[in-house]
Amino acid sequence: MQDEALTRAMQCLTSEERQRYASFTRAERRCQYLIGRVLLRHAVSRVTGIHPKLVATVDRRGSGPGLTLPDGVLHPGISISHSRNWIACITGTGISLGLDIEVTDESRDVTALADAAFSGDEAAWIHGQEAHARVSAFYRFWTVKEALIKLWSNSEKRQPLPLLVDDNGGPHSSGAGWHSLTLAYRNLAIAVCSGMALPEVVLVDATSLLA
Ligand SMILES: CC(C)(COP(=O)(O)OP(=O)(O)OC[C@H]1O[C@@H](n2cnc3c(N)ncnc32)[C@H](O)[C@@H]1OP(=O)(O)O)[C@@H](O)C(=O)NCCC(=O)NCCS
Q: 4'-phosphopantetheinyl transferase domain: which residues (predicted)?
């Protein structure tokens, strides 16, 4: 990020957000936090119609950020994720959301990771994929699980993660009270989870916003 863009982004933050920004020791983490807050302001502005300057966030321990909006503005669902130098956020009206992104790393031993992190049936599905499809299969399950954790935390639900394979051993993308949608963009695996099926997800690359 250029110095000028960094200064402009910093000016958007509230004093509480600046304190949180300054509390991170790693420069990469500071940058993820800052860009996440800028993106969120623009995304919330897009779905509510209010100016980005009228949007502020409050950090909530053990959960995603909350929003402070002018009186009378309906609070949209929001979620943020980062992976290496990618930062993403999602907003949607009248719905709770969970988002996860991961940079796809083809060099990872995804079968060993699946054995360690997933149930036996889920890992078996990953093992059963053709070699070229195994990495994306792994990231599909991983991102959906992380997005579900965020969805349930954002909607203050506590329940165990569901199995992502059905009785026939095949993958499924929805269950009681949850829906997931997975996308790939550049080198990213993306998962969006929501309490009800989403009519559409519009993906916007906002790189130019931060130039
Ligand atoms: C909560 C958790 C899902 C966050 O995921 P992560 O990969 O560490 O971080 P991401 O970059 O994707 O997301 C970070 C953002 O999510 C949000 N967030 C953090 N904790 C959250 C929570 N409990 N609920 C909702 N959102 C949360 C924040 O906005 C944060 O960014 P910010 O601090 O800059 O605002 C993760 O820390 C966790 O607890 N995972 C459990 C491990 C696990 O069982 N994984 C399942 C795979 S088998």
A: 96-156
